[in-house]
Amino acid sequence: MRVALFVTCVNDTLYPRTGQATVTLLRRLGVDVEFPSQQTCCGQMHYNTGYRHQAEPLVRDFAETFADYDAVVAPSGSCAGMVRDIHPRVARRSSGRVDPERVDAVAPKVYELSEFLVDVLGVTDVGAYFPHRVTYHPTCHSLRLLKVGDRPTRLLRAVRGLDLVELPGADECCGFGGTFALKNSAVSAAMCSDKLRHAADTGAEVLCAADNSCLMHLDGALRRQHSGVRTLHLAEILARTEDDPHGTSWSRATRSLA
Amino acid sequence: MSVVSLGMPAFPTTAESATRDAQLRHNLRNATHTIRDKRAHAVAELADWAELRAAGAAIKDRTLRHLDHYLVELEIAVTRAGGQVHWASDAAEANRIVTELVRATGETDVVKVKSMATQEIGLNEALADAGITAYETDLAELIVQLGDDRPSHILVPAIHRNRAEIRDIFRQAMGRWGRPAPEGLTDRPGDLAEAARLHLRERFLTAKVAVSGANFMVAETGTLVVVESEGNGRMCLTLPETLISVVGIEKVVPTWQDLEVYLQLLPRSSTAERMNPYTSTWTGCTEGDGPRQFHLVLLDNGRTATLADEVGRQALRCIRCSACLNVCPVYERAGGHAYGSAYPGPIGAILTPQLRGIASALDASLPYASSLCGACYEVCPVAIDIPEVLVHLRERVVERSRGHLGERAAMRAARWVLQDPDRLRRAQRMAARTRRLHPKRLPGPGAAWTDTRDTPQVPAESFRDWWRRTQEEER
């Protein structure tokens, strides 16, 4: 099985450690994951903001870049959802600029990380170790577009040392919503503060999700508030082991962060 | 449909002041979460909910595809049963028709059944201009009318008020409109309801003309259907001599059998009831029973144009249950008034810009009043893919409005970078090299981010550079 990583443009540019964690985790589970270097972006920002035609070339390029793989793993619920749910619609409405057949051939092979682990690899215990209290926010596109259900929490429950506490109002949006965070910043901030209040109520030290765009928004507010809670992508928890509890083997491989 | 929106600021402006109103936030949170939870329970009772939902969407879709046929069938049936049918292409025409019909009775007072269509066209205001007073008889609509306020929810128009506020409104305003509130009125729900009952009872017994909407119109028999909880609708539909119903053309269903589906979907989705307490149906006029004159005003007001749009037309399936409002995180924090129309919440954000266009700043801002979280689509009993329509309407705004020049340029530039991995790599390296110079507070549109959040730190090395440096060397 040829497996490709679709790291997503947000992770590629801002959160490379999530990509590194995903690679480390998949290799530990015996998957020789490849990174097709032609990949860039799924076009979600353009599509969701009303620029469908600008998204078309990105949709077409995605289908070409990943055409030869059996599975494509994305550490992002919303980008995986964009490809699986929206790309076929964009192709169909493109008046021939994007070939629907090429898109349809790739879209169903795209998996959000937890789906790939649980459904394709058939594992829930990935051998991870993370001795911290964690609460999990199921991001909207994972929850409602992909319907990943309890896969992420099953994976987290199997992590040794991890104390998973339920997040009240978990299924409510965090308020990111892409350009919504800019265009309706007051409502976005109000949604964010409610989400963070719920997270703080759990007493967790880590707020985990499988989407760094939502976490960027939540983390930005947490840092502004000098909160004691930190955010962490699901992959970065699952990649940690008892031999490497801080993920130094993979996160030190990059030049260290400021 | 321009009554409310004239000169109203765009959604984000009104929404921002709503987010600062602690009382409003508290009222809305309490109310929406209560209804939301009850609805989930009521829906979970039915094992065939998914099938009902699919049927609800399919029947509406099929009816809308043959709308011309069913509307004519309806007109023939209503006329045969002794009613009169009037066709109104827009709000002004509908208001004119209703005003003339009321004038012809010689009356200057009308009682009203809660109706979205008449709110949409601003009927009460039009009647007032003609010297006719319209009295709302639904409890929540009464609260709104007495408070000189606007509805903020489709089903519970006074959702933004708590009972202490309602008591104050009753004490201050009831006397001006009719029977005053009882002495020593408390804010106990039972006492408030009793005060409203006494106030309204006089109204029902003296009214000669009633105005209603309808939840459904059955084409095969020309029957109209109103579902309600309080019984005020039953009073208005049966006691007066003249009944005028203003109904959107999308409310028609072909047969009585189709009601089977909607009379299950609607109450569970809206009030979380298995069946609504009052279901009134009437067919034209019947000698010695109910109104002696019945007029049906069929309202287009943008519906035909909406039907012409392949993506947007699904909004016409809406049965006004308001489940989407009750689960919407944006509605919960912005409140209903920010939407500036009779239709707040997610359904309003896709219906209003289609019914009245996107010419005003408010209407052009409505498709953006969503984080696209998808909770609305999930609960919609007729499976309207609201996020899909929102994005579709954003496209329309982008193409037609001049206010998006900067954004359009930025999007084009972003696409240019993102379409080519080498350009993306160069942009990432540029960002990494300058990362210590990135300001903590961004200027321009970026300030909307940094007003409440820190910006993420750009890493020294992108993932693709790390991969090239470490992985490709290994291979």
Automatic annotation (TrEMBL), chain A:
Residues 3-83, 134-219 form the Cysteine-rich domain. InterPro entries: Cys_rich_dom. Pfam families: CCG (PF02754). One of its GO terms (cellular component) is cytosol. GO terms for molecular function: oxidoreductase activity. It comes from the Bacteria. This is Fe-S oxidoreductase.
UniProtKB/TrEMBL annotation, chain B:
Residues 74-285 form the LUD domain. Keywords: 4Fe-4S, Electron transport, Iron, Iron-sulfur, Metal-binding, Repeat, Transport. Residues 431-441 have a biased composition (Basic residues). GO terms for biological process: lactate metabolic process. It comes from the Bacteria. Residues 315-384 form the 4Fe-4S ferredoxin-type domain. Residues 431-475 are annotated as: Disordered. Residues 462-475 have a biased composition (Basic and acidic residues). It holds the Pfam family LUD_dom. Residues 400-470 form the Lactate utilization protein B C-terminal domain. Coiled coil: none annotated. InterPro entries: 4Fe4S_Fe-S-bd (IPR017896), 4Fe4S_Fe_S_CS (IPR017900), FTHF_cligase-like_sf (IPR024185), Helical_ferredxn (IPR009051), LUD_dom (IPR003741), LutB/LldF (IPR004452), LutB_C (IPR024569), NagB/RpiA_transferase-like (IPR037171). PANTHER family: LACTATE UTILIZATION PROTEIN B. This is (4Fe-4S)-binding protein. It comes from Wenjunlia vitaminophila.
